[in-house]
Specification:
3% helix; ten-stranded antiparallel beta sheet; 140 residues
């Protein structure tokens, strides 16, 4: 069922995560394959992802990251694990920008193939030029 927007309840649970990374400046491609869980955390959910990261010809390594997801009105707000704001999405707003001077991180969500969905990042800065696309497929 195609969706324009999701809620915290929709995300709760386990997901298979596949991520494709292209570093245009360095000419390196990579991938991350793993799992992502959204679990209750205070007033929202904690997203924890972990998997095997392969970048170019470097040896594979274990990678993990966590974010906090909260409702603010009809919007979902994503925070870094330490509570700093990251980005938001809401009805009619499935794209946002995060400024991490001097770099700019643009994100777009696509829920059109729900419950499979994607999150796409374009990262630009003085030393960065990357495309990162993550696909989430529900496991439970």
């Amino acid at each position: 069922m195609a969706r324009q927007m999701i809620t915290l309840t929709d995300l709760h649970g386990a997901w298979r995560l596949t991520r494709h990374i292209i570093d245009h400046r360095a000419g390196v491609t990579g991938s991350l394959t793993g799992l992502c869980h959204w679990r209750p955390d205070g007033p929202g959910l904690r997203q924890h992802e972990e998997g095997v990261l392969i970048l170019g010809s470097a040896p594979p390594l274990q990678a993990s990251r966590a974010y906090l997801w909260r409702h603010e009105g009809a919007s979902l707000v994503v925070f870094f694990e330490d509570g700093r704001p990251f980005h938001r999405l809401g009805p009619g707003q499935l794209a946002d920008r995060h400024l991490c001077a001097p770099d700019v991180y643009d994100v777009a969500y696509d829920f059109g193939r729900w419950p499979d969905w994607t999150q796409s990042w374009r990262v630009l800065g003085p030393r960065k030029d990357m495309t990162i696309e993550s696909r989430f497929v529900r496991l439970d």
